[in-house]
Prior knowledge:
The protein is an alpha/beta fold and about 475 residues long. Helices cover about 25% and strands about 25% of the residues.
Amino acid sequence: MERLKKVGTVKAKSSHEVQNSRLGIGFEKLDRAVFDPEKAYDKVAAIGVKWIRIQSGWARTEQQKGVYDFAWLDEIVDNIIRRGMKPWICLCYGNPVYSSFASVYFGAVGCPPIATQEERDAWVRYVTAVVEHYRGKVEYYEIWNEPDSRYSWKHAHAEDEPEPGPNALEYAMLANLTADAVHAADPKAKVVGFAIAQAYQYTYMNTALAAGMAERIDALSFHAYTADDTLRPGYLKMFRQLLDSYRPGIEIIQSETGAQSRSDGSGALAGLSWTPEKQLKHQLRNLLHDLAADVTFTSYFSTMDMIEALRGLISDKKSYLDYGYFGVLSADFDENGFSTGSYTPKPSYRSLQVLAALFSDDFKPKDMPVRHVSLPSKRVKGNDCDDKTICVYTFARENGAKAIVYWNAVPLLTQTYEGTISFQTFGMDKTVRLIDLADGSVYSLPEDMVKDAGAGEIQLINVPISDTPKMLVFGDINDEMEEI
């Protein structure tokens, strides 16, 4: 980047300054009260994201049969809305009031209310109460969390019988009951199905869709915890094709994706060689895949470093003191696993802030006449990068500004990359800026990198490329930039 001249930096936008956005972040696990939301609200709003995923916490809300105490959840919902963000709710988990089996697990995680008619009826009443209570404040309701995972679909079973595990037909039964209750309580609300943990579980999804879910859900949500972001476009394409085979128009939402910032964490992708820099790269690459696929919105996991608490037993405190480091805010922990300290931003906080500022409001994916080419490059003593792992997306704004986002998707855990790339473009503005999406630095390109080939053709020659996404913007970006 030393060949370029830094001319500014991307200005952060608070959520209040953003009218529309397809970017969000997770505010999960407050149903288990594992961190202090008061210390996080303002920091999340300062990122500029719009969609905030929270979990409803049946066990925390209904501790006495038929009595719903929404005070704790009201505080969260109202604080989110007050700061210009949009809460959406994942309806989960079990409730010891109706199931002794659920009382075994910390937060009743993964205990679906399906064993008895009493449980099912109580769940429907609870869902109805939640949706009626938040009518006009919450639009999207997601049904359960990762029901295709063994930890999140635990059955009551005899001591001498093995745990049966996930079952698509069982999930469809619960999802159908839930969807009907949501739509009856608020006809304007939208139902989100699946929150699928394994994005390649197409048979599971198809089985549930065929069992009545296709007629009831308004959106499908997925999670994709993998170190290989090159898989993401394939997942998104398959989701779209599968949904359209049933009913075109069902939305796609990415409700959890992230990576840890250190290698000693628990939970998804644990034990891999994660660093703050790799977390940042993983975040940008995956969210950009989602934005390019024009999902309804995409949510980064998560706001906080916190305990994972997915398989915790009430009788064994150590079983839920399993720390995950997915947050864009770092935390310390007390003896009970509660996230303490000042909640300090990581590098991934700034990268998400940059992405939120640039992709706010009307920046949308658009196919444009752009192609990358390999030209002689003195910088690398050879030719421009022409790897098959190059990823290129194009976006446009209503004011005429256009952008190319690109990176070399070498394996995150084992490789880094730095080189050059050239582009042939048509119909672009001659004013070009390069933005480093990692920190928001804005650069002008020297004259020898930008060639006007006539008839609206602009060639960009030997511009920097790395394994961290960069953005070439054509046109006026003064509103997004602070000059230096």
